[in-house]
């Protein structure tokens, strides 16, 4: 049965970015440490980087995306990532939740702009064709989806770093949700836990 999986990386103190995130510094100052697991080790914004996952990190990622048919992200993540160079890098179409749908890029980019979470989920579910739907960043999109009871699974990667500032995943979130640990794996760069969201 197809699931909606919210997936994101945080610091130990719950930040999904360091301070001053935005185009060119998508994870904020110091936030690139959150994605050492994605890049296969230390990297910098200015020094370039490769997606060189390996070991437990790669196994976690490949298992997570194996059943994905489409995804949803917020406009903030889309902009901060520089629209991934203009081409969707993820499996299946990517729905971008935004109030500025008039900025819709060309269809060949793999991005579709929509203005509401329920509409985004409906389009992503249809596009996924029976496969899972991923909800990525930012934090606000994940909080909205959890609050609305739309998430079946939360995949949380925790990097071994305390950022002290930036954007928190659960800032202002006031809902009480029970989770069940489905799987946990660790590497030197992150501990990845997949939780079922109890409904």
UniProtKB/TrEMBL annotation:
Family annotation (Gene3D superfamilies): Dihydrofolate Reductase, subunit A
InterPro entries: DHFR-like_dom_sf, RibDG_C, Riboflavin_Biosynth_HTPR
Pfam name, any one: RibD_C
Domain Bacterial bifunctional deaminase-reductase C-terminal span(s) in chain numbering: 3-180
Protein name (record): Dihydrofolate reductase family protein
Native species: Pseudarthrobacter quantipunctorum
